[in-house]
């Protein structure tokens, strides 16, 4: 009997040790994502969705917003965006990395009239570090959007474009200084999974709330990135 208890105790301790090691691995801080690795992960996430979902959406390269801010590359970026035909898409994901921090801008229904009740042109800015004041990006975002409309020769006036709402939902927040890139990838994955066909201001913030997802869910997502096909 004593040998049986001893063996059983060793098995329990071994299982606890493995669980502890797994938890330590999940919680271990990772280096901040660079744009190259971010792009690889985003492409994997994108391919995991159906063709139907992908057809309604598109995304920008994570360097485009920063390149747009440089006078020497601004026109190139606007030409690239014009080719992306974003005004035919329901949602456009714009990863932003500024001042060493990642956030996610989403253009919703830019091809729709502002008079439509069921589909409201708007912008969402998802930021896992609210204390850094994401609203400080608004002036540059609005210049960016105005230039996109004008480069595409859209009929909307400057006044109409300036009144497109920029909404900043209260989303889950990061635990350290390196998680922001993973948060942006997770935002994209979950938004693609849950986004309504018709995004309206009346339904805002939809699922984008403080309890949208848990940190444990983010950790599992992060661990699964390398194993994605």
Automatic annotation (TrEMBL):
Q: Which UniProt keywords apply?
A: Hydrolase, Protease, Thiol protease
Question: What residue stretches are annotated with the Ubiquitin-like protease family profile domain?
Answer: 16-191
MF GO annotations = cysteine-type peptidase activity
Establish whether keyword Zinc is in the entry.
no
User: What domain of life does the UniProt record list for this protein's source?
Assistant: Eukaryota
What are the boundaries of the region Disordered?
1-23
- Gene3D superfamilies, per database record: 1.10.418.20, Ubiquitin-related
Q: Name one GO biological process term.
A: proteolysis
InterPro entries given in the database record? Papain-like_cys_pep_sf (IPR038765), Peptidase_C48_C (IPR003653)
| Keyword field contains rRNA-binding | no
Could you tell me which PANTHER family the record lists for this protein?
Answer: CYSTEINE PROTEINASES SUPERFAMILY PROTEIN, UBIQUITIN-LIKE PROTEASE 4-RELATED
Name the family the entry cites.
Answer: Belongs to the peptidase C48 family.
Protein name as annotated: Ubiquitin-like protease family profile domain-containing protein
């Amino acid at each position: 009997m004593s040998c049986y208890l001893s063996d059983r105790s060793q098995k329990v301790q071994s299982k606890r040790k493995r669980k502890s090691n797994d938890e330590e691995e999940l919680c271990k801080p990772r280096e901040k994502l660079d744009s190259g690795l971010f792009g690889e992960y985003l492409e994997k996430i994108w391919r995991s969705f159906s063709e139907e979902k992908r057809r309604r959406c598109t995304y920008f390269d994570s360097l485009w917003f920063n390149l747009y801010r440089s006078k020497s590359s601004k026109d190139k970026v606007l030409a690239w965006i014009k080719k992306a035909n974003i005004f035919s898409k329901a949602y456009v994901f714009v990863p932003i990395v500024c001042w060493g921090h990642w956030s996610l801008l989403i253009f919703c229904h830019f091809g729709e009239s502002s008079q439509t009740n069921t589909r409201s042109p708007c912008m969402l800015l998802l930021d896992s570090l609210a204390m850094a004041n994401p609203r400080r990006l608004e002036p540059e975002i609005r210049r960016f959007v105005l230039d996109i409309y004008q480069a595409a020769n859209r009929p909307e006036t400057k006044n109409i474009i300036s009144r497109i709402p920029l909404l900043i939902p209260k989303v889950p927040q990061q635990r350290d200084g390196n998680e922001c890139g993973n948060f942006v990838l997770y935002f994209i994955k979950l938004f693609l999974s849950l986004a309504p066909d018709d995004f309206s201001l009346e339904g805002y913030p939809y699922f984008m709330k403080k309890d949208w997802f848990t940190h444990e869910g983010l950790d599992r997502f992060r661990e699964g990135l390398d194993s994605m096909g």
